[in-house]
Design brief:
Number of strands: 11
Helix content: 40-55%
Mean pLDDT: 92
Distance between the termini: 61 Å
Structural class: alpha/beta
Order of helices and strands: HEEEHHEHHHHHEHEHEEHHEHHEHHHE
Largest sheet: 7 strands, mixed
Oligomer: single chain
Strand order of the largest sheet: 7-6-5-8-9-11-10
Shape: elongated
Strand content: 15-25%
Length: 411
């Protein structure tokens, strides 16, 4: 049975994308993207994986499966397509294509995460962070741009430049925290130091930034020195749980909660609460599920295998409850999911514009894994499968004073 016949059986005679395969069969479309099954091993990757998405990802990462044309347009066209193939028909197609021979799993791509030890122990968290963030600073700069900011930006409109949108994000966080000269800020999960630099340069704040990634810490420390703010800004390569100082005026957590794990949220928020003075504020900025139902993150899928091992997403209601249970009073919340879709679109454009350099820096498998991850994440935010929430919490004084203006002043 030729592969084009299988494709049309699944997606119909007028599929939203074209198709061609190593066996010479093809399905034409009106000039849009084309799925290209280049090698028979692509079928083995798909059939032998416990989850379809992981099998397809393995085939794509290794180049056995490719997309000719715009990857985003191809994935978007298939994302919203309702496919309901009866199980009996699926088994018939499986047997026509080779049956049990398809279950022979080929060698796995090297990019897949292999962690050991107790989940969310300090040692395993460090290994998980290294897997994702220690790909190479040069590669990240190519993707992220000059700001070296790997979190959701805030766009004034759809044509706002990425660098301007990242500046706006940091300034929004600073204003929500009410930063003023002389205050003390703790920035956990500081990445390459974007928030640290912004708080020190723009607000005159004394700030400590911590990250588990050695490559990030080295970059951020150099950036602090070059910016001339080393007297008030410090970068530490350590676990946030190793910060001993207390009575900070503010804490920013931008993109860290996803790594903490839902089962550890109570300890996470309690630790941060204990690090604040009465009246101090926490701004928690993180990716969430759209609701509180279902598992935090499906294990054995593409994201947990290639991108964020041990990561997990909670619903906004769960996060709000854990903040309150730790003692915080939640004072403001907003969902920025459309902004993250725009951010990811900019990152993909950066990656694709310098594709050859990206491959030279990290190898083709890693570059392809990142392209797939960024495009898939953009679709996730656009379709409301995932969200991005900023939550502002306050450690109120014993008299109940939250030290918050009657109306928000950060807009």
């Amino acid at each position: 049975m030729r592969l084009a016949e299988v494709f049309t059986r699944i997606y119909g005679n007028d599929p939203p994308v074209g198709f061609r395969a190593y066996d010479g069969s093809s399905v034409a479309t009106g000039g849009g993207p084309i799925l290209d099954v280049r090698r028979p091993v692509a079928l083995n990757y798909v059939a032998s994986a416990r989850k379809l998405e992981l099998g397809l990802a393995r085939a794509y990462v290794t180049g056995a499966l490719d997309v000719v044309g715009d990857l985003y347009q191809a994935m978007r066209a298939l994302w919203y397509l309702d496919v309901d193939l009866p199980k009996r028909e699926m088994w018939r197609l499986f047997n026509k294509l080779g049956g049990l021979k398809l279950l022979r799993r080929p060698p796995l791509p090297q990019r897949e995460a292999k962690l050991s030890g107790r989940r969310h122990s300090k040692a395993r968290d460090a290994a998980a962070v290294a897997h994702h963030y220690d790909v190479g600073n040069d590669f990240y700069r190519l993707v992220l741009g000059e700001s070296m900011t790997y979190t959701c930006a805030v766009y004034a409109d759809k044509v706002t430049a990425l660098e301007d949108a990242q500046y706006a994000k940091y300034d929004l966080v600073a204003r929500k925290l009410g930063l003023k000269p002389g205050m003390r800020l703790l920035d956990i999960g500081c990445g390459w130091g974007g928030m640290v630099l912004h708080a020190a340069r723009e607000y005159g704040v004394t700030v400590i930034g911590v990250t588990l990634s050695r490559q990030q810490a080295e970059w951020a420390a150099k950036a602090v020195t070059e910016a001339g703010v080393g007297d008030i800004a410090e970068i530490r390569h350590c676990d946030y749980r190793d910060v001993a100082e207390e009575r900070f005026d503010a804490i920013s957590s931008i993109g860290l909660t996803e790594h903490v794990g839902p089962d550890n949220l109570a300890d996470y928020f309690s630790f941060l609460y204990d690090r604040l003075r009465p009246g101090g504020r926490l701004l928690n900025h993180c990716i969430t599920k759209p609701d509180n139902r279902g598992p935090a993150l499906t294990r054995g899928g593409f994201i947990s295998t290639y991108v964020f091992p041990d990561g997990g997403l909670s619903g906004p209601g769960t996060l709000a409850s854990r903040m309150h249970d730790a003692g915080f009073e939640l004072r403001h919340e907003e969902n920025l999911r459309e902004h993250y879709a725009l951010t990811l679109a900019d990152w993909v454009r950066n990656l694709e514009a310098d594709w050859d350099e990206a491959v030279n820096l990290v190898g083709e498998e890693t570059a392809r894994a990142w392209r797939l991850y960024l495009v898939g994440s953009r679709l996730g935010f656009e379709s409301n499968h995932i969200q991005l929430h900023q939550m502002l919490g306050v450690r109120t004084g014993t008299d109940g004073d939250a030290h918050i203006p009657l109306r928000p002043q950060w807009e």
